[in-house]
């Protein structure tokens, strides 16, 4: 078993980061996620959002794991549960549901306002990697941790891309709303 952890601070509010998290996949920075299906989503009486999504990915398997599993493709399905408490903390827990007889990756991501600067958001990530019945298990677990680390870097870039895209959409909508409110006034002036 190998545990990998990471931490990143986004220079954006928690609300902005949460909107980007919900719209993160697919994205051009990390095209490994090829499908996202929402299986269930509900808000409980306390105001917490609970979601159950199924992600289809084409990443995360080392070539040696593909050979050991005789997989022609690297498609992997990941089941993800999320909880979004009212107190501004979002926790995503995911685990792979493909190739579980050989490899298990349990990942937890947490997004919270930074304790020293509530206008920024801290993102912590932990992955527990376990390979079963494979030679060179520790070595392969370290290689998978390295792959996860690389993916996390791309996920951070994807989040920044998503936030930039979201801000551009807001600016476009604002400009459009301003333009549409002027149109009737201008039309009335010419009538």
Describe the main β-sheet briefly.
7 strands, antiparallel
End-to-end C-alpha gap = 76 Å
Q: How many structural domains are formed by the residues? A: 1
N to C succession of SSEs:
EHEEHEEEEH
Oligomer: single chain
Look up the CATH topology.
Alpha-D-Glucose-1,6-Bisphosphate, Chain A, domain 4
| Rg, alpha carbons | 21 Å
Per CATH, which architecture?
2-Layer Sandwich
Summarize the structure.
This protein is α+β, with helices and mostly antiparallel strands and 191 residues long. Helices cover 37% and strands 35% of the residues. The protein has a single domain, classed as Alpha-D-Glucose-1,6-Bisphosphate, Chain A, domain 4 (2-Layer Sandwich), CATH 3.30.530.20.
Can you describe this structure?
There is one protein chain. A seven-stranded antiparallel β-sheet has the order 1-7-6-5-4-3-2. Helices cover 37% and strands 35% of the residues. By secondary structure, the chain is of the alpha+beta class. The chain has one domain (2-178): Alpha-D-Glucose-1,6-Bisphosphate, Chain A, domain 4. It has helices at residues 14-22, 63-69, 137-190, and strands at residues 2-10, 33-43, 49-57, 76-84, 90-96, 103-113, 121-131.
Give the SSE layout.
Layout: E1 2-10, H1 14-22, E2 33-43, E3 49-57, H2 63-69, E4 76-84, E5 90-96, E6 103-113, E7 121-131, H3 137-190
Helix pairs in contact: 1-3
């Amino acid at each position: 078993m190998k545990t990998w952890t990471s931490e990143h601070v986004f220079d954006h509010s928690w609300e902005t980061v949460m909107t980007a998290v919900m719209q993160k996949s697919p994205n051009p920075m990390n095209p490994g996620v090829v499908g996202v299906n929402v299986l269930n989503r509900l808000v409980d009486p306390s105001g917490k959002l609970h979601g159950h999504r199924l992600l289809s990915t084409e990443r995360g398997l080392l070539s040696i794991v593909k050979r050991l599993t005789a997989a022609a493709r690297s498609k992997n399905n990941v089941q993800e549960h999320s909880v979004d408490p009212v107190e501004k903390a979002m926790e995503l827990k995911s685990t792979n549901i493909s190739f579980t007889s050989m490899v298990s990756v349990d990942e937890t991501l947490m997004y919270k306002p930074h304790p020293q600067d509530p206008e920024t958001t801290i993102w912590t990530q932990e992955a527990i990697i376990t390979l079963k019945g494979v030679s060179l298990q520790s070595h392969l677990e370290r290689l998978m941790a390295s792959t996860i680390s690389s993916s996390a870097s791309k996920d951070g870039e994807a989040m920044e891309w998503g936030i930039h895209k979201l801000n551009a959409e807001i600016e476009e909508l604002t400009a459009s709303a301003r333009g549409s409110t002027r149109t009737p006034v201008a039309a009335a002036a010419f009538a």
